[in-house]
Amino acid sequence: MDYLAHLTVVQHTSADYLGLLEDHLEGRKIRFSYHRPFTGRGGIPRVDDVADGLVLLGGGPWGSAGPRNVPTLIEEVELTHACLARGISVLGLGLGAQILALAAGGRSRPTALEFSCGEARRIDDAALNGYLPERYLDVRYGRDTFEPPLGARILAVTASGEPALFQVGDNALGFSGHPGFKPAIAEDLIMEFEESPADAATMLSAVRPRVREIEDALVLTMTGLVQVMGWMSATG
Q: Are 33 and 26 in contact (CB under 8 A)?
């Protein structure tokens, strides 16, 4: 199969992966390769090895603003900064969005480990070339949160008014949660780590019946996302 683009995906845990995004990428002939520095058999990729895009996934209990920082935080901020400087697209989810914010001149601040399923509201009608749904589920499993850099476009906010999705430059996006979340991600995170949110079982029961909503919103979100990122026109 001839692929239109090749994405470099950095995992922070074995449980947190692209989830529902995988089918959308494969259906568009967009190839992706996972890098798992936490296994000890592979480190953070070099910027020269990133072809058409960098994707930074969530981290479960790992954060970016306190004593439980992901061990590769400094290297990932440096890699992301280099990708931004070269105009390489960057997609950050959860912890990945915090890393994007740090690399672009923003900040992250400490918050407790949480598993939540709130609603995000679009505040920029042109977000994702007009394809971002007016409202979508913002499913988070992680700790800490981002503070976007000055000049970033805030595309969506949470019910409390906090940024839920921001854009840096032309082709870098940070989601506070995971737009392609699957309940199995949370199930595996609970099993993988001793630390988990106190109400994790309750939240799992609340999220499972809403997977169809996540799937439906993702159809529009991915249409706009691949356009903004330039993945349908890449040559990798």
A: no
